Amino acid sequence: MNRRVFQLARISAQRCRLSGPIHTCGVPHCVISASIGQCHGDCEGGAHAHIERDHRRVRLTGYRRPGRAGTTHPFLLIAKRKLKLKTRLRAGLTALVDPGILKRPVIHIREREPSPAFDNLLLAGKNVLITGAGRNIGRSIATEMASQGANIFYTDIERNSCEKLQQELASYPVHSKGFVSDISKTQDIDSLYDTLSKDNVYIDTLIHNVGIHFTTIGIRNLDLNEWNKTFQGNVFGPLYLTKKISEAMKVRQTDGSIIFLSSIHQWTIRSIPSYSASKAAVGMIIKELAAELAPFGIRVNGIAPGFVLEQETGDPKYYERALLHRSSINPRYIGRAAVYLASGYFSRFTTGTVLKIDGGLSLYSAHSDRYLP
Ligand SMILES: NC(=O)c1ccc[n+]([C@@H]2O[C@H](COP(=O)([O-])OP(=O)(O)OC[C@H]3O[C@@H](n4cnc5c(N)ncnc54)[C@H](O)[C@@H]3O)[C@@H](O)[C@H]2O)c1
């Protein structure tokens, strides 16, 4: 079987006009791949083809990177889950018994992603403050918002992460500045706020991204110190910063947007009660503040992600429990949700809501099996 798969990978690579060695790409469910340079997001040649196998199926895909035309053989389209299984099986069998069909390629242009820079300018000229933006979700929010024209001000507790993001944001024609600042310390928040005010930076969108969690499980291991730290970072610090920024928004009559990164575990268990309880608190804070600040035109909303992770290659990770796409969520989709909630164009009438982005994970209790006998 592997030999056959290997041949198909070679053929699909040819159809995508790829050259170079065929090698396995290292993703656990990917059996074999053909690529130029490194597999997945890193291939500067702009394309790769690979075959994935998970518990249920063998999957063959071939594509070029977003924004470029790619060549995909019809056989590759059988990998599309939208098609009925029967249709896909029949197409697969036909192609296997009649390799001649593989000689008739069609040009297939993948749906084009919006250009990363200035396609829409939904947030042109807005000043955004993001906490904990050094990596993962916070970083993606920063880059997605910068690509919509927002000036990015951000914090992180790690100096290195701040500097790295600064380099990345330098490629966008917007203002950006990072601050090494700890959201759980009121003195850090005061000094952050004073510096922004001194520089005449007035915030239009505030994003509370920092999320602290410990892994202690079970009431028998209760550690109130951990609870204090969790609530300090996830609830009290953000509240203190919100007070300062919202007061300034009121004075300047800014139609502001305040966004809290919550979690699906504001509703479902995570077996880390300090974390889920802090997110549940965030859920109510969103509603309370939304009602209080609505008369001033300030909107308060939340985003509740499921499992967000991108691998070093830039790809999501196979995750069986997420019903939709069976993968972790690439953080850029959380960034785009933040763009939505920050943009009056889309969400002028949206306040007090929490937008769930979890690939269907919370449609059933993903952690309930822990409690099964
Ligand atoms: N990643 C997920 O799967 C997931 C799922 C649901 C919700 N969330 C929520 O999304 C938010 C971001 O998650 P993430 O996975 O990107 O987090 P992360 O831990 O990967 O990154 C958090 C960033 O915040 C910084 N940070 C930590 N403590 C800080 C502090 N006290 N002050 C300032 N910066 C600090 C870290 O250095 C890091 O750069 C969190 O609120 C988290 O609870 C994440």
Helix/strand layout:
Elements: H1 2-15, E1 22-23, E2 30-35, E3 47-53, E4 58-64, E5 70-72, H2 74-77, H3 85-97, E6 106-108, E7 127-130, H4 136-146, E8 151-156, H5 159-169, E9 176-180, H6 186-198, E10 205-208, H7 224-251, E11 257-261, H8 273-293, E12 299-305, H9 331-342, H10 344-347, E13 354-357
Parallel strand pairs: 7-8, 7-10, 8-9, 10-11, 11-12, 12-13
Antiparallel strand pairs: 1-2, 2-3, 3-4, 5-6
The structure holds nicotinamide-adenine-dinucleotide (NAD).
Nicotinamide-adenine-dinucleotide binds next to helix 4 and strand 8.
Question: How would you describe this protein?
Answer:
The structure is a single chain. With 373 residues, the chain is an alpha/beta fold. It has helices at 2-15, 74-77, 85-97, 136-146, 159-169, 186-198, 224-251, 273-293, 331-342, 344-347, and strands at residues 22-23, 30-35, 47-53, 58-64, 70-72, 106-108, 127-130, 151-156, 176-180, 205-208, 257-261, 299-305, 354-357. The strands form 3 sheets. It has a 7-stranded parallel β-sheet, sandwiched between helices. A 4-stranded antiparallel β-sheet has the order 1-2-3-4. Strands 5-6 form a two-stranded antiparallel sheet. β3 and β4 form a beta hairpin. It is globular, with a radius of gyration of 23 Å. The two termini are 38 Å apart. 38% of the residues are buried. Residues 131-132, 134-138, 155-158, 161, 182-184, 209-212, 233, 261, 263, 305, 307-308 line the site of nicotinamide-adenine-dinucleotide.
